[in-house]
Fold each of these.
Amino acid sequence: MKKRAPRIDRVREVRSDYGNARTVSATEAARNLSELMNRVKYRGESFKIERGGEVICELRPSGTPSFSVADFVSLMRALPPVDDEYLDLVEELGRSQPQIPESAWEP
């Protein structure tokens, strides 16, 4: 009789940015991929998949990434200030780019 693959009930809880993700081995994930995908789709669960004791990827519900204006402002404030030399270089590169011909498809 063929040995059945173990069920994914023996997983360790790990906290992630996407909610509680359960860690499973790559072997368990491969044997139970359909079940994992159903749990992601219908229950919104997330799984971290590890190989050799190291997490290598995450299986989680897909969704539209959210990035608010406040997130953008925070990002811009965290970046180093732009100096005049950089702006001059960007302008020079912009002027040296070839012109794109107008599309015959646009009115």
Amino acid sequence: MLSAADRAVKNALNKYGAYARKVAKNLIKTKAYTLHSAEGSPPFGHNGITRYKDWIFFAYDQSDKRVFIGAIRLSRASDPPVPEILEHGGYTMHSVPWSELPNLSHKAKRPKRKKYQAARPHMSVAHRAAGKKLPVFFRDSIKPF
């Protein structure tokens, strides 16, 4: 059985997680596949079968009284994780454009090369925005009988 204080913490942190997730998803604007956001601004989302913004979740951990907010890993095991690369920047593998491969048949597999992906922070922005509202989430969370 949860005490009144434990229920209040759980409710406040769930509100915090839901708000931070909403802010993060709203920061990702949908654009065409050919458009990319400027370095240092939130990433653009693209319509398709799997949209990055649809994989941003939050979860409350009862034992540690913490909330985890962020995107789950979308990339394969051999690739760098997408959420970390978007948030902090880093190197990823990209296919070489066809324009740079004039003698290669379109049926052939394109070679890949390492390319630096600049940071597109969005979760840290969402955490800061939700952190400002944390006192509101805790206000009047324990009510007298």
